[in-house]
Amino acid sequence: MYEYEYDEFFIGGHWVAPAGDGTVEIISPATEEAVAVIPEATEADIDAAVSSARAAWDRRTWRDLYPAERGRKVLRLAEVLDSRADDIARRVTLEMGQPMALSARSQRGAIGLIRSFVDALDRIVFEERRTGPAGPALVRREGVGVAAAISPWNGPFFLSAVKVAPALLAGCSVIAKPADNTPLSGYVLAEAAAEADLPEGVLSVVPAGREAGAHLVAHPGVNKVSFTGSTDSGRKIAAVCGEQLKRVSLELGGKSAAIALDDVDIETLVPALVAGSFYNTGQACTALTRLVVHRSRYDEVVEAMAQAAKNMVVGDPLDQATQIGPLATAAQRNRVEAYIGIGKSEGARLVHGGGRPAHLPKGYFVEPTVFADVRNDMRIAQEEIFGPVLSVLPYDGTDDDAIAIANDSKYGLHGAVFTPDRARAEYVAARVESGTFTINGYVNNPAAPFGGVKGSGIGREFGAEGIDEFLEYHTINDPAAA
Question: Main EC class of this protein (predicted)?
Answer without folding.
Answer: oxidoreductase
